[in-house]
Amino acid sequence: MLADPGIGAVAFETNLRGDWKCEEWHGKPYLNKGVMRREVLMAVARTQGDPEGKRFWSPKWHTYAADTQAGLLIWKLGWTVAHGFGLRVHDNARNRSDALRSANVARYRVDGTVALFHERWDDPHSVDYDPALAREFGGRIQ
After folding, report:
1. Do residues 81 and 45 lie in contact, with contact meaning Cβ atoms separated by under 8 Å?
2. What is the DSSP letter of 15?
3. Starting at the edge strand that comes first in sequence, how are the strands of the sheet with 7-14 ordered?
4. Is the dihedral of CA 137, 119, 8, 51 positive or negative?
5. Mean pLDDT, contiguous 10-residue spans, the chain (142 residues)
6. Angle at CA 128, nearest 5°, toward 122 and 133?
7. CB of 13 within 8 A of CB of 22?
8. How many helices (H) and strands (E) does the chain have?
9. Do the beta carbons of residue 62 and residue 107 sit within 8 Å?
10. Strands 24-25 and 28-29
């Protein structure tokens, strides 16, 4: 990140789905676990409805989809997400029965959060750079 101002975040590898790897969406790494620049986080917060760019959590997304969307918005706002090969975070969510997590998953399937997320992000072009969005919310103009 120090060497390239175009890198907005570095995605860490996780073992959430088995082998260690960075989570990807349409073949691009997104920031499920990792680090991002402060200016990137603030731009993402503004696109999600906070004019001051201080609240990361979107009022539209009621669950974990908020951070997944944030990882994808980084691309739309003009930065890239770099693979953090060898930088690892253990995620044992798939190996535990967590009543709260299960309840949240059930809720966001029922309340439409999952459908809304997929409606917005399932098209591979949904993560393409958007210069108008970048100008409006403080992204990186390419």
Report:
1. no
2. -
3. 34-36, 7-14, 80-89
4. positive
5. 94 87 90 90 91 78 66 94 92 64 73 83 95 97 91
6. 110
7. yes
8. 5, 5
9. yes
10. antiparallel
First to last CA, the chain: 17
Return the pLDDT at 60: 67
SS3 content of the chain, % helix, strand, coil (to 5): 40, 20, 40
- The strand pairing partners of 7, in sequence order, are 80
Burial of 1 (C-beta count, 10 Å sphere; 0-12/13-18/19+): middle
Separation in Å, CA 29 to CA 60, 75, 132, 139: 23, 10, 23, 18
137 burial class (0-12, 13-18, 19+ CB within 10 angstroms)?
buried
Q: Which residues pair with 13 in a beta bridge?
A: 88
pTM of the full structure: 0.83
Strands (E), the chain: 7-14, 24-25, 28-29, 34-36, 80-89
